[in-house]
Amino acid sequence: MSHRGAFIVIEGLDRSGKTTQTETIQKRIQEAGKEVVCIKFPDRSTSIGKMIDSYLRSQSNLDDHVVHLLFSANRWELASTILAHLKQGKVVLCDRYAFSGIAFSVAKNLPPINLAWARAPDASLPSPDLTLFLDISPEAAQSRGGYGEERYEKEGMQRRSQERISDGKGGGKGTWIIVDAGRDMSAVTEEMWVHIRPLLDGLDTPVGRLWD
Ligand code: Z5A
């Protein structure tokens, strides 16, 4: 039986090192002789992604419900691509996913954007086999480069979204691992690799769906 690839999501707060670690892990997977495709959400290259980018840079204002639905639509734009890569046996490494979508919208404290409302648009998206949540305090994140340039990069929003980012983890059958991202980069990579390596030979189970 041919194996499908593993769908691995890297989640975490702003400046927790998601992009840095995605690049390092991508190289490691390639060095292990496996094919890997990297995806990042929001994908700012699509027409929906461009609207999100403009909003995040405070160049435009959008209703909070609309923004939430745009982030979800941005994932749906790539859902069939993710499934196609997995079917071809490639590892899909994804920087942020629906868990960020829920966390940042619910953190706004604007009824009716509660957990149930926020989860609904992402229902049935491909569900990750493994989510590595890079955990860091907002204070430590702030001390890292580039903090404060975009709309959500404020301490209160970061703290509230951190409290909410695990809300989606009960959905799907995948594994959720918390990684202490406050350590040096190589220590973080090594811990992530321990969980990723066993998935590189592929899986023979169907891809799950959020929030089954
Ligand atoms: N958002 C949303 O609301 N709804 C959604 O559905 C989704 C997202 C998907 C933009 O996301 C915003 O969109 C985000 C959530 C919201 N808002 N906030 N906040 P983004 O992913 O495009 O942007 P980002 O979170 O700002 O990503 P980032 O800037 O790329 O951060 P990162 O990837 O976690 O960190 P990094 O770039 O790898 O590292 C940041 C710096 O820290 C850099 O200088 C590194 O060299 C340094 N670094 C990294 N690791 C370490 C360690 N271990 N030690 C010391 N320094 C380190």
From TrEMBL:
List, alphabetically, the PROSITE patterns matched. Answer: THYMIDYLATE_KINASE (PS01331)
* EC number(s) from the headed UniProt entry: 2.7.4.9
Q: Which GO terms describe its biological process?
A: dTDP biosynthetic process; dTTP biosynthetic process; dUDP biosynthetic process
Q: Does the keyword Disulfide bond apply?
A: no
List the record's Gene Ontology CC terms alphabetically: cytosol; nucleus
Keyword annotations for this protein, in alphabetical order, are: ATP-binding, Kinase, Nucleotide biosynthesis, Nucleotide-binding, Transferase
Annotated GO MF terms: ATP binding; dTMP kinase activity; nucleoside diphosphate kinase activity
Pathway per the UniProt entry: Pyrimidine metabolism; dTTP biosynthesis
CDD domains in the record? TMPK (cd01672)
A Pfam family recorded for this sequence:
Thymidylate_kin
Task: State where composition is biased (Basic and acidic residues).
Answer: 147-167
Q: Where is the Thymidylate kinase-like domain?
A: 10-191
Map out region (Disordered) in residue numbers: 145-170
Checking NCBIfam families in the record gives: DTMP_kinase (TIGR00041)
Question: What does the similarity note say?
Answer: Belongs to the thymidylate kinase family.
Q: What is this protein called?
A: Thymidylate kinase
What lineage does UniProt assign to this protein's organism? Eukaryota, Fungi, Dikarya, Basidiomycota, Agaricomycotina
